[in-house]
């Protein structure tokens, strides 16, 4: 869970005066929030402070039922180069590193556990914990020049925590190859192997993201939130337990007003008017 071996630049005066994370709320009924990592000179490395800023925003968003979609984006050439190597080397005690990795893991789990759909918008490289962040998001779109790697192995550190999310997105052999070689894969390969959902030319990335957001926000928010919670829980169950759990969830879902409205609208050949949560 370490950053790319490329040199991490020191923060500029401009960086220091800028917020670590920029939050932008949509001004329409879609309920979309964009969180932009804002340390471009440091390749948006996940320092303790940046992780804390992200955690604060995610915890706040998770409590707001009006928000349906969260986009995680980044400024600069890199999406996220993992952890800050200089910060890690400046703190050599095990307690610091354990706390750092647990802090990062908590943020990744928050993304999975929050009711909103979280989409990574990847405009550049995503390495180590940055690749982990892409994998932790529910969905991901990337520009065709984006690259992905779990590069800790190159500095003698196996990316163990990134392995948790990467191995849950890619096949075992594809995931292990990334983790054990540290080599970059292209956006097209990441799409083929299941790390991301859509690839677009850089100048069409916003349009591609918008179409994915619209495909989600036009659906019942009750169904979307129910579905996200159910999807991750059943993955960890046996097949029989998953079917029993899914039956219970579907029964509860059937009792909601949105399902009644959705079925009536389908029969009457009209657009549904969702009531939502």
Question: How would you characterize the overall build of this protein?
Answer:
The longest helix is centred in the middle third of the chain and has 20 residues, at 94-113. A 6-stranded mixed beta sheet has the order 1-2-3-5-7-10, sandwiched between helices. A 4-stranded mixed beta sheet has the order 4-6-8-9. It is globular, with a radius of gyration of 20 Å. The chain has helices at residues 13-17, 48-62, 85-90, 94-113, 129-136, 160-166, 172-181, 187-193, 205-217, 221-235, 239-254, 257-267, and strands at residues 21-25, 32-37, 69-74, 78-80, 117-122, 125-127, 139-143, 147-149, 185-186, 198-200. Strand 2 (32-37), helix 2 (48-62) and strand 3 form a beta-alpha-beta unit. By secondary structure, it is of the alpha/beta class. The chain folds into 2 domains: 13-217, Alpha-Beta Complex (2-enoyl-CoA Hydratase, Chain A, domain 1); 221-267, Lyase 2-enoyl-coa Hydratase, Chain  A, domain 2, CATH 1.10.12.10. Helix 10 packs antiparallel against helix 11 (239-254).
CATH superfamily of the largest domain: 2-enoyl-CoA Hydratase, Chain A, domain 1
Q: How many runs of DSSP E, i.e. beta strands?
A: 10
SS element count, helices: 12
Tell me the count of domains.
Answer: 2
The SSE order reads HEEHEEHHEEHEEHHEHEHHHH
Question: What's the CATH C level of the largest domain?
Answer: Alpha Beta
**Strand percentage:** 15-25%
**What best-fitting shape do the alpha-carbon axes yield?**
globular
**Overall mean pLDDT:** 92
Spatial strand order of the main sheet: 1-2-3-5-7-10
Q: Assign the CATH architecture of the largest domain.
A: Alpha-Beta Complex
CATH topology of the largest domain: 2-enoyl-CoA Hydratase, Chain A, domain 1
Which oligomeric state applies? single chain
Taking the sheet with the most strands, its summary is: 6 strands, mixed
Helix content: 40-55%
Low-confidence stretches: 1-10
Class per helix and strand makeup: alpha/beta
Radius of gyration: 20 Å
Distance between the termini: 37 Å
């Amino acid at each position: 869970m370490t950053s790319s071996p490329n040199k991490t630049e020191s923060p500029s005066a401009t960086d220091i005066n800028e917020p670590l994370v920029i939050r932008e709320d949509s001004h329409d009924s879609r309920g979309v929030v964009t969180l932009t990592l804002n340390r471009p000179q440091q390749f948006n490395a996940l320092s303790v402070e940046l992780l804390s800023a992200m955690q604060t925003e995610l915890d706040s968003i998770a409590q707001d039922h009006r928000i349906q979609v969260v986009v995680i984006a980044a400024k600069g050439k890199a999406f996220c180069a993992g952890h800050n190597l200089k910060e890690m080397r400046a703190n050599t005690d095990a307690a610091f590193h354990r706390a750092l990795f647990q802090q990062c893991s908590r943020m990744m789990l928050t993304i999975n556990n929050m009711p909103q759909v979280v989409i990574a918008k990847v405009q550049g490289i995503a390495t180590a914990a940055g690749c982990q962040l892409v994998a932790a998001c529910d969905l991901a779109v990337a520009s065709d020049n984006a690259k992905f790697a779990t590069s800790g192995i190159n500095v003698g550190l196996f990316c163990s925590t990134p392995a948790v999310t990467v191995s849950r997105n890619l096949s075992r052999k594809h995931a292990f190859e990334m983790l054990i070689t540290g080599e970059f894969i292209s956006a097209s390969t990441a799409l083929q192997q299941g790390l991301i959902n859509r690839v677009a030319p850089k100048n069409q990335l916003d349009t591609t993201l918008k179409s994915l957001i619209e495909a989600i926000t036009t659906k019942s928010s009750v169904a979307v939130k129910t579905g996200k919670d159910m999807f991750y829980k059943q993955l960890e169950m046996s097949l029989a337990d998953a079917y029993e759990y899914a039956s219970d969830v579907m029964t509860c879902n059937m009792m909601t007003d949105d399902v009644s409205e959705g079925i009536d609208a389908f029969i009457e050949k009209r657009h549904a008017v969702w009531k939502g949560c």
